[in-house]
Amino acid sequence: MLKGFKNFVMRGDIVAIAVGLIIALALSTLIKAFTDFIVNPVIARAQGGHSMGLGWQLGRAGNKNTYLDLGSFLSAAVYFLVFMAVVYFFIVVPYKHVQARRGVVVFADPGPLKTCPACLSEDLPAAALKCRYCGSEQPPAAAPAGSPAPGTR
Q1: Which of 148, 126, 151 is nearest to 139 (CA)?
Q2: Which of 114, 119, 120, 109 is closest to 142 using CA atoms?
Q3: pLDDT digit string (tens) for 91-111?
Q4: Which residue segment(s) compose the domain that 133 sits in?
Q5: Do residues 95 and 119 both lie within one domain?
């Protein structure tokens, strides 16, 4: 039982994901500091004066509980976009490259899809013979344009 667990944990994809998560957590701290100390002051300065930030006061002046803080939302959006870009360019792209060198395709575009005529589900692979949702038989996939019909040459 422990040998099976060891084999599961030591698989290459599990280790790669663990390393990626550790890197992502470290980068998250860096990006959070960027948005807190660079983006937030710029957004607050855009509001001008001595306001609490970019936004509107809905209740009594100076009450943070009734302040609609658009600046914090914009900062969170910038944080999300920067974080996703960092994860993509520093984790996903190199991982795809390494796996491609090993002959493994990861994060590939999905193949062609078709719609089930019985239940109208739209996410069936083009080569499917039965619908995964209703179990109805599917018509054979049409041959791509320019290719010979099956069984002929």
Answers
A1: 126
A2: 114
A3: 788 888 888 888 877 777 777
A4: 110-140
A5: no
